[in-house]
Give the backbone structure.
Amino acid sequence: MEIEVRGLTKAFGQVTAVRDVSFTVPEGKVTGFLGPNGSGKTTTLRMVLGLVRPTAGQALIGGVPYDRLARPRRCVGALLEATGFHPGRRARDHLRVLAAAGGIPDGRVAEVLSQVQLTRDAGRRVREFSLGMRQRLGIAAALLGDPQVLLLDEPANGLDPAGAAWLRALLRTKASEGRTVLVASHVLSEIAQTVDHVVIVSAGQLRFAGPLSEIGDTNAALESAFLNLTATSR
Amino acid sequence: MTAPENHMLPMIRSEFRKIATVRSPWLLLAAGPLIVVAGITGLIESGGNVHDPALQGKAFAHVGLAAICTLIFGILAVAGEYRHATITDTYLSSPRRHRVVTAKLAVYGLTGAAAGLVSSAVAIAVTAAWWSAKGGVFHLSATGAWATLGGGVAANLAFAAIGVGIGALIRNPVAAIAAALAWIALVEGIAGQLVGAGLARWLPFYASESLDRASLTATTRLLPQWGGGLVLLGYAGAFAAAALVSTLRRDVT
């Protein structure tokens, strides 16, 4: 299932957050979605997920808009920065609520908890969780429906180095299984080690979309390309 | 081809799980029966005469008063999700948002009615206890007893549904609850005086009063019980429609 973004534009009043952005996120690869803070990454992701209504253009997942997917949670797993938890709800219950809504068997809850190494903390209320544990719980929620498409916004936030390494391995595994993986980040060093493909946006406009090899696959090469591509707009 | 799926059932199950897995709804719903106990006890302590046949109806009418708890319970259905930013996950599970609102109306309405039934049982028990303590004759077959309790349950259901609508319109829970309580405590009373009794009885809390005071002697100040029920149903429908319209297109950022 490819993600296809066609001419997406979003204006919030006078401010155009995203302007005529088009790109494709291929299957079987990890695609990095890069841009400085405030460049329109999150707004673009939210339009792909049907949370924000585009002013123009459309986003398709496997050829259909998100809100036309028959079982959205089983097709697309998403982790967004502003995704919240009820502080008084236990981690296991948080996932059971989502499993019910997604028509996903309850057995998956224990599986994903073990996958993100939260089994021992499953009975604790989320208010007791550290930032890293919340992030793991959010990733567990994204994995719950065993989706073909993963869409993660700054997934390494709050993870320690071991957690970040675990996350990179997870993303590589998912891509090698033929799934579509899109990871938004502003931390370049995280991305250079993990992605095959990059989409770079700045000031709401597309600057580059293509294989990482076209830019150069060292950290330094990516950094200078990133700075060049995003500087022209300012 | 797979069999057609029921799209509402997963959302309804998920909403019940949301309610069951945090403490605040339980505390809120437990406050309803407490209001009933305190209200009926207050009625007796302030010198109510258990030999007055009208007093039993007044005692039962407290079930309708407990609807203030199901109103706040309903407000938190949508506004609470915005407060904790869980609404994002809810809409990711069901991007067809009308299903979310419909499931919440059904689940919160049913739970509100169940809370009203508990309040009714508590009202019967507490009234029976006080009547026997004070040497009165308590009987459930008294004129209007069941109608008053039934009206009270209906008010608990209707206000939960109205709350869902208010919370979807005003997504800040503190502001939504403050607005609802201000309406109850101040605005409706003043508005009622401004428009006169003939029109005031069509306002939501006047309507609910007629709903749970069926045993009182007929008065032109209030609508008949069935009329109050219909008016409240109309308000619930209007708020539900407003909730749907305002929810469907709004960006979640």
